[in-house]
Design a protein that fits this description.
Number of helices: 11
EC number: 5.1.1.13
Structural class: alpha/beta
GO molecular function: aspartate racemase activity
Largest sheet: 4 strands, parallel
Order of helices and strands: EHEHHEHEHEHHEHHEHEH
Keywords: Isomerase
Radius of gyration: 17 Å
CATH architecture of the largest domain: 3-Layer(aba) Sandwich
CATH topology of the largest domain: Rossmann fold
InterPro entries: Asp/Glu/hydantoin_racemase, Asp/Glu_race, Asp_race
Shape: globular
Number of domains: 2
Strand content: 5-15%
Mean pLDDT: 95
Helix content: 40-55%
Number of strands: 8
Family: Belongs to the aspartate/glutamate racemases family.
Length: 242
């Protein structure tokens, strides 16, 4: 099958949050794109800036606002020829309203794509659990989008959020790919399924790097993969209608 190579779309990846998650996202974009040769793949510009201040710390009032860095990254992508922006960081989407009107390019909203995916692809799921950074949880990003689609959200309790989820996210950012991350994440996921979650959203792009899908008894929804699929659909549609 040929890919959307003739599409005029140039994917701009606003990354570095963190670097491993950005690399993982690009690998998923490549794997998701149909084709049998280099030429079948999408033109892509990656701006990976690990100096962007921590998004959770900013949302909790403990660190600088990352908005200027995100705007600068958007400018770099635009000047490099990108036609659309993808941000493979869930927590950074709390700042999308601040940059969307100034980026000069459309931003494909990862969390919105997850909500649509659950509605269209998994219509039998009405209650989902969320594993995400404290910043994403506090900002209500998934709560807002899933509520629009009538999906109930289950969140970790405070102890599990701090001890399990955030500990694991920090471990992955530090390079851990073993039980240091997978065991607390699996424990947090079990707590969510015990409370009725029919699926669990890996709502931080580090989480799929630390939590194998088979460690969870229900579907593990990967927003990074869903964003990659949305970009391929966008490029394919525009290549056939443009």
């Amino acid at each position: 099958m040929r890919g959307p190579a003739r599409s005029a779309e140039v994917i701009g990846i606003l990354g570095g949050m963190g670097p491993a998650a950005t690399a993982d996202f690009y690998a998923k974009l490549v794997a998701t794109t149909p084709g049998s040769s280099d030429q079948d793949h999408l033109r892509t510009v990656i701006w990976s800036d690990p100096t962007i201040p921590d998004r959770t710390e900013a949302l909790l009032g403990d660190g600088p606002d990352p908005t200027p860095w995100l705007l600068d990254g958007s400018r770099v992508l635009r000047e490099a020829g990108a036609t659309v922006i993808a941000i493979p960081c869930n927590t950074a989407h709390a700042f999308v309203p601040r940059i969307a009107g100034h980026a000069g390019l459309p931003i494909v909203h990862m969390i919105g794509e997850v909500a649509r995916h659950l509605t269209v692809r998994r219509p039998g799921i009405h209650t989902v659990g969320l594993l995400a950074t404290t910043g994403t949880v506090r900002a209500g990003l998934y709560q807002e989008w899933l509520d629009r689609f009538g999906i109930r959200l289950v969140l970790p309790d405070g102890d599990s959020q701090d001890r399990d989820v955030m500990t694991a996210v920090r471990a992955v950012k530090a390079g851990a790919r073993d039980g240091t991350a997978s065991e607390p994440l699996a424990r947090a996921a079990r707590r969510l399924t015990d409370r009725g979650a029919q699926a669990v959203i890996a709502g931080c792009t580090e989480i799929p790097l630390g939590l194998p899908a088979d460690a969870v008894d229900v579907p593990l929804v990967d927003p990074s993969l869903i964003l990659a699929q949305a970009l391929v659909r966008l490029a394919t549609n525009r290549s056939t209608t443009g």
